[in-house]
Amino acid sequence: AQTVTQSQPEMSVQEAETVTLSCTYDTSENNYYLFWYKQPPSRQMILVIRQEAYKQQNATENRFSVNFQKAAKSFSLKISDSQLGDTAMYFCALGSGNTGKLIFGQGTTLQVKP
Amino acid sequence: GAGVSQSPSNKVTEKGKDVELRCDPISGHTALYWYRQSLGQGLEFLIYFQGNSAPDKSGLPSDRFSAERTGGSVSTLTIQRTQQEDSAVYLCASSPEGGGLQPQHFGDGTRLSIL
Q1: pLDDT, tens digit, for every residue of B5-41?
Q2: Greatest CA separation found in chain A?
Q3: Would an 8 Å CB–CB cutoff place B67 in contact with chain A?
Q4: Antiparallel, parallel or unpaired: β B110-114 and B10-13
Q5: Quick count: other Cβ atoms within 10 Å of Cβ B75?
Q6: Per-residue pLDDT at B93 exceeds 90
Q7: Which residues of chain A are within 8 Å of residue B102 when distances are taken between CB atoms?
Q8: Which residue in B89, B101, B111 is closest to A95 by CB distance?
Q9: Of B67, B65, B41, B63, residue with least CA distance to B54
Q10: Is A73 left (phi over 0), alpha (psi -120 to 50) or beta?
């Protein structure tokens, strides 16, 4: 079975500081992607960043970067220079090459404080 | 271009009634997904359509739930004889191709409340 675990239900960070959100996963497949999605109070899911499992280099998107540890099945998200607009729920998701569905973690609510 | 469109945004109905939720994917996207998000929870996969292939219905929680996709575009999720536990946000997503490797683009969801 494929699982995604986010062990931090809530986190907070001061504006302009750095925060790291944790995610671990389990899969028996070799061909998969990992994603971080953001869901602000407006409810729409927004893709933040994605990582191909076969790439060793960690993905980066502006202030967002990941630490992908394949052997440990860990995929954490680092947000640098946090902004008030980063306040949202963040979901880690596992996408399999064999199925069309994403397996989501339970989410981490991040609050950026002024 | 236009994103994934879902209607209605909110739906309140009485227990036992049938409801239909609509999803209009991004033009040209061949894959379409339905997920359910209960209050404060992660997303739960319901069903996946890819082109003309038979849909993956493995996530549908009961036979009261069904979905169709007409003409490879618009999809309708139907819940018959609604129960209070069906209350949730129903999210639709589409991607250019099928398989779990493509980033999915989500609509704003339909918030369903069963009284």
Answers
A1: 999 999 999 999 999 999 999 998 989 999 999 987 7
A2: 43
A3: no
A4: parallel
A5: 23
A6: yes
A7: 95
A8: B101
A9: B67
A10: left
Q: In angstroms, what CA-CA distances link B47 with A64, A86, B65, B82?
A: 30, 30, 10, 18
Residue A53 identity = A
Q: Do B100 and A33 touch (CB under 8 A)?
A: yes
Shortest Cα–Cα distance, B107 to chain A (Å) = 6
Which of residues A51 and B70 earns the better pLDDT score? A51
User: Chain A contacts of B42, Cβ < 8 Å?
Assistant: 4, 91, 104-107
Least confident of A39-53, A54-68, B56-70, B80-94: A39-53
From B21, B33, B22, B29, select the one nearest B1 (Cα to Cα): B29
Contacts of B40 in chain A (CB under 8 A): 107
